[in-house]
Amino acid sequence: MSPDRYRILCADDHDDTCFLLSTLFDGWGYEVRSAGSVEETLTIAAMEHFDLFILDYHYRDGSGVDLCRQLRQIRPQTPVVFYSGEAYESDREQGLRAGAEAYVVKPEVKGLLTAVQEVLQRQKLGADSGV
Length: 131
Hints:
This protein has helices spanning 15-27, 38-47, 64-74, 89-97, 109-128; strands spanning 7-11, 31-35, 52-55, 58-59, 62-63, 80-84, 102-105. By secondary structure, the protein is an alpha/beta fold. It has one domain (7-128): Response regulator (Rossmann fold, 3-Layer(aba) Sandwich). A five-stranded parallel β-sheet has the order 2-1-3-6-7, sandwiched between helices. Strands 4-5 form a two-stranded antiparallel ribbon. The chain starts with 6 loop residues before the first strand and ends with a helix.
């Protein structure tokens, strides 16, 4: 898949994760913006358009599950992918119930790339078909 410069907001409170994902996705032709907290993510998401959000499960100022629900309120059409170190099935289920389209456990970078590509492709197909 060759993205048409999709914009991704990567929300993770670890700078090294944001740097890694920015570098990875930039190499694949995506534009990535980073946020380090729930508050910063909500502020940026309210002001700018993104094609996808990548969220962690925990932040210093709140929960990724709660953040996902809040993003669903302000940007209901923008897909969410969790990328988290929380590997329990219950964590994955909570993330998906909050509105995420996919849940990938760190450090599975290839799995994250695959999930992002699949979610964006489904989003594009839905938009093309008028769904």
